[in-house]
Automatic annotation (TrEMBL):
This is Elongation factor Ts, mitochondrial. Belongs to the EF-Ts family. One of its GO terms (cellular component) is mitochondrion. CDD domains: UBA_EF-Ts. It is found in: Mitochondrion. HAMAP family: EF_Ts. It comes from Actinia tenebrosa. Keywords: Elongation factor, Mitochondrion, Protein biosynthesis. The gene is LOC116298714. Its main location: mitochondrion.
């Protein structure tokens, strides 16, 4: 076995030498002599190339580093091995090389794949009732359900969600500084357009750059679909619900194929936040399942707005108890719906 390996290495060295010999011949003009300047520089180039080939040919990859690199970067076995071989098992250098390659390949692939349909993907929801009474929901699309379920894609959509939340918090903080009434706030929703999303910054670059890197690793077209953020009055409570064949909770985000956010306002002093919080989650589940379009008939402004009774939230039969409508439930619990939004991945 040892003799066979030795023969293989000699054959590989011989093959590399023949390539280098041909390269040297092609690089050196016929009229150049060994003392010429061009001849000396050619020898230097070829010598460096020869040393690189010889040094990497015998590098054995560290299996622990290979496993760690694959887990941290998401690249395949062969690419991670190439990175370690080229960098002599220097983990930091190999990781930096892979990120550089991902960015280069990502932008190239993003340009190449941008015309391909991306109707799969995920919806992510994040609610913060403790700090700023804020909620956000985003949709990121890809080409296949297989990629949508991958850890790398899930990580991407959670980063998009956190970026949207961070953006809204910055706006709230800025408004507080300008507001003479201090911390008082009203209910507001903000729809983030695709070009706004692309420019949002994270600790790893803009969202546009993160998407390009992810495309480089996964090889599919990925699009920032849509996003919405909400802030509400301090007495109000947000609830959320996510549904689908693939649901995951990671980094304070709930991820799935369907998502809903609802804001409730207490109408009585005997209603506590825990009760409202539990009710808001159940109502968000109802909204995902029943897909209402408006809160009430009065919310349509005009009597013939194109919505029938089945589209009106308070008129719908409550999903979790068919003996009463949502309106009757809200009256019994002493709350009202301030706002809601529902996303279904791939459907606008």
């Amino acid at each position: 076995m040892a003799s066979m390996l030795l023969c293989c290495r000699r054959a590989r060295f011989s093959f590399s030498s023949r390539i280098l010999s041909k390269t040297f011949t092609s690089l050196t003009p016929s009229h150049c002599s060994p003392g010429d300047k061009f001849h000396s520089s050619s020898v230097k180039i070829i010598s460096n190339l020869h040393l690189r080939l010889c040094s990497t040919a015998n590098v054995k990859t560290d299996k622990n580093l290979l496993s760690k690199l694959r887990k941290s970067t998401g690249f395949g076995f062969s690419k991670c091995r190439e990175a370690l071989v080229l960098n002599n098992n220097d983990y930091s250098a190999a990781e930096a090389w892979l990120h550089e390659q991902a960015e280069k390949e990502g932008w190239a692939k993003a340009t190449k794949l941008q015309g391909r349909a991306a109707s799969e993907g995920l919806v992510s929801v994040m609610v913060d009732n403790e700090d700023t009474n804020l909620a956000a929901m985003v949709e990121v699309n890809c080409e296949t359900d297989f990629v949508a379920r991958s850890d790398m894609f899930v990580d991407l959509i959670t980063m998009v969600t956190h970026a949207a939340v961070g953006h809204r918090k910055a706006v709230v903080e800025q408004n507080r500084k300008l507001n003479m009434f201090g911390d008082s706030s009203v209910h507001l929703r903000e729809v983030l357009l695709t070009h706004d999303l692309r420019d949002l910054k994270t600790k790893n670059g803009t969202l546009e750059e993160l998407v390009a890197k992810t495309i480089g690793k996964l090889g599919e077209n990925i699009k920032l679909g849509r996003a919405i953020t909400m802030t509400t009055e301090s007495d109000n409570v947000f609830g959320s619900y996510v549904h689908g064949p693939f649901v995951k909770n990671i980094n304070n985000c709930s991820v799935g194929k369907f998502g809903a956010i609802v804001a409730l306002k207490p109408l009585r002093t005997d209603v506590n936040n825990e009760q409202i919080s539990a009710l808001s989650s159940r109502l968000a589940q109802h909204i995902v399942g029943m897909n209402p379009k408006v809160i009430s008939k009065s919310a349509t402004d005009k009597p013939n707005e194109g919505f029938d009774e089945s589209d009106v939230l308070v008129e719908q039969e409550y999903l979790l108890d068919g003996s009463l409508t949502v309106g009757e439930l809200l009256e019994r619990e002493g709350v009202k719906v301030v706002d809601f939004v529902r996303y279904e991945c791939g459907v606008i």
